[in-house]
Amino acid sequence: MDKKITRSPLQKYLKPSLIGIMIFIVTITAYGFSQSSTGGRSHNLAFNSITISEVVQGAFIDALNLRGQVVPKTTIYLDTAAGGQIEQRLVEQGEYVEKGQPLVRLSNTNLQLDVMGREAQVTEQLNFLRNTQMNMATSQLNLRRDLLEIELQIRHLQRRAKQSSTLVNKGLLAKDRLAEIEDDLSYYQARKKLTIERQQQENSIRKVQVKQLEESAVMLEKNLQFARANLDNLLIKAPVSGYLSELNVEIGESKERGARLGQIDIPNEYKLVIRLDEFYLNQVQRGLAVIVELEMGNIEAKVTKIDSRVNQSQFQIEVDLPQGTGSIKRGQSIDIDLMLGGNKKNALLLNRGAFFTSSGGNWVYLIAADGSSAVRRDISLGKKNQHYFEVLSGLALGDRVITSSYGNFDKAQQLKLN
Description:
Elements: H1 9-38, E1 42-45, E2 52-54, E3 56-60, E4 63-72, E5 75-79, E6 84-89, E7 96-97, E8 102-107, H2 109-170, H3 175-232, E9 235-237, E10 242-247, E11 254-255, E12 260-265, E13 270-277, E14 289-294, E15 297-311, E16 314-320, E17 333-339, E18 344-351, H4 355-359, E19 363-367, E20 373-378, E21 380-384, E22 388-393, E23 400-402, E24 414-417
Parallel strand pairs: 1-24
Antiparallel strand pairs: 2-23, 3-18, 4-13, 4-17, 5-12, 6-8, 6-11, 7-10, 8-9, 10-12, 13-16, 14-15, 14-17, 15-16, 18-22, 19-20, 19-23, 20-24, 21-22
Helix pairs in contact: 2-3
């Protein structure tokens, strides 16, 4: 037999209540979607949780606030010209050294033996050159002596021929004897002519040889000086006066030829090395003004060098500091203002803020006149400096804009401010 089931009052009204709640939620959601399609999403926001800045008009100073590192303007590097083993360290790193002061002594046995061998070779060649010059001088003297003897014989024969001719005419001497004397006279006269020609030829050749020998002697002397200079290079001396900022040597350590031993910094001459984002690569030029902030006050300098090689999205510039800029030290960081030169007298200015991270400067939230809400508006920003953005379009003088971080409400079209 079937039994009639009766519902309790709770079961009787629970289902209609749930249905009603679901209908209400669906209605609210539909209303939100309708609002999004017509007026955009809205977001409630506490007024004291945001930063509001007003668009003002004034001079836009196109400058970048940066930090530069102090480095020596002129650095002299110490390299080994010969190489060898560190025998003695005569100074310590950080000391002030005078020009010509010995710094490090090296030893190189192979170089010393090589120099000794070259000295012996050069000495031998120089001796050979001197002997050659002496032989040439002796040959010249012998020719002159031969010429004197020939002339003497010619004079004797001429006198005998004259005497014999008289005797032949008187019949006291045979003609054959006179003919022999005349033949000897002709021989010595021809020999004199040949000796003179030989002397002239040897004189011309000797002049060329002497010049070559003298040039060779000069070259040999230079080679000998160079060989001795290699030994002198084993003693490293300070090329200039300054601070020995680095000295990387240890007793007994071997250094190859051309190895870097250290460096000397010229005192009281400094420059700033500054790294910039590659965005400014086309805007920075040599000669741009730089305001350097020192303890003694601000000074003006100029960009002297631009290294356009981009490394990790940055490039490097250098600024020479004038002498007498106070007690700055190597490695110190100094604040500077790089004046890019795009200054404007009457520009619309908006304070810099965290809003740029979300909007990229393409839009902002503009506060309504009554201050109860803010709407999203597209804008266009130009250059920026340490404090302001330059407003190109989308905002007017006196407009109030939210410049703090947009955080989680950057998708909303309008904000309700409580």
